[in-house]
Amino acid sequence: MSDAPVLTSLEDGVFTVTLNRPEQLNAMDLPMALGLLEAIDEADRNDAIRVVIVTGAGRGFCAGADLAAGGKTFDAGEGGDGPAKLQRDGGGLITLRLFDCKKLVIAAINGPAVGIGATMTLPMDIRLASTKARMGFVFTRRGIVPEACSSWFLPRVVGISQAIRWVSSGRVFPAEEALAGGLVSEVLEPDDLLARAVEIAREVVENTSAVSLALSRQMLWKMLGADHPMEAHKIDSRGIQYMGSTADAREGVESFLEKRAPHFGLKVSSDLPDYYPWWDERRFE
């Protein structure tokens, strides 16, 4: 196996991204973070990629930040231009990039996932866990605060009360508790985890329009921050008007009526509407 910190493979439209520092339980360091960002960029660039699965090598998913620097792990120090300059949180760069991804992202959480290992999964669309997975938002036990935009994502995924319960204690909890709390949608035996992720991915690949999915994913995520359903009505209307005139809409209806598998032709790289991304002016610079 390669010693690259992130491994990727593509088969039948399913792009598997594997965090690859198994001896460190895939603890996050800078090369791994950069490799993960590049993998997400590749997913958006490559029309052959329809669904992304993120998992970990060995027995861990991601054990959080690499703590090799000891007590100064989270100290930006003088190299960060001092307190007058805001230092962007590296985990936040990952989750914001996932938030804007054009492809469906599935987390196959095969083992321990704490700190950034847990928070990076929040903007992923489907989270599956092995019975051996353990998750934790451990920040209060490390003397820091939630990162990777998790103060925004976590309450939206599991609700504010559950989010505060997990964050305030900082404890690591089993997969069954993650399921009960709405953090993951399924708990599977270790040997079944990746196969189930691929099964879900292939259903998407075989039955959906890439452009419809890209727009739908962003509509659902971005509307979490809307202050009135009228905002959804506006973007719904633009989407229906645009997609309704395309070959994919015709194919979707005709394949249904003819009781056959659809063959969608629109590409995310070239066929997104001119109004995409409509939320661009809200981005943090």
Structure in words:
There is one protein chain. With 285 residues, the protein is an alpha/beta fold. The chain has 2 domains: 6-204, 2-enoyl-CoA Hydratase, Chain A, domain 1, CATH 3.90.226.10; 209-282, Orthogonal Bundle (Lyase 2-enoyl-coa Hydratase, Chain  A, domain 2). 40% of the residues lie in helices and 14% in strands. It has 10 helices and 9 strands. It has helices at 30-45, 90-99, 116-119, 150-158, 160-169, 175-180, 190-207, 210-222, 229-244, 247-257; strands spanning 6-11, 14-19, 51-56, 104-109, 113-114, 126-130, 134-136, 172-174, 186-188. The strands form 2 sheets. A 6-stranded mixed beta sheet has the order 1-2-3-4-6-9, with helices on both faces. Strands 5-7-8 form a 3-stranded mixed beta sheet. A hairpin with a 2-residue loop joins strand 1 (6-11) and strand 2. Helix 1 packs parallel to helix 2 (90-99) and helix 4 (150-158) packs across helix 5 (160-169). The chain is globular. The two termini are 38 Å apart. The model is unreliable at 78-84 (pLDDT under 50).
